[in-house]
Amino acid sequence: MSFIIPGLAGFFGVLVMTFFLRRARYLHLPESQMVRAVGSLVTRNYETSLVPGTAIHFGIGTLFGYGYSILLSTTPMTGGNPLIIIALCSFMGLVHGLIVTLFLVIAVAQNHPLERFKSLTPEDMASHVISHLAYGATVGFFLTGLPTIMG
User: Fold this and answer.
1) 37 and 53 in contact (C-beta within 8 Å)?
2) Which of 128, 137, 138, 140 lies at a C-alpha separation of 20 to 30 Å from 70?
């Protein structure tokens, strides 16, 4: 597998994840301002949080594409079946989402510098888990599809 493919898969995964976070109302969940929440951890200001939040969100999401690829390479046998790879990455996304949600509740929400990000509802948590599941499925899809496309 090419070195660039997991990074691209992670990047596209972040695009889909961000769509799910921002358009969660279509799933009857609250929209998440996760990019702004992450950015305001750095800037301590909501108004100036979009650029650093976007850079951090996409940078970490791209790196996680490599992490998913490494974890996927440790599986004993996927047989190269794209559906198995997508299912495994979706499961990784689900677990990833649960861990991130716990981290958000325990560490970030309690210590965030801005009052608007200090509380999370169960609906907020659900939107984070669903968006991470979508991230994993997207990463799996691109890990299987990009090698074919890129040759």
Assistant:
1) yes
2) 128
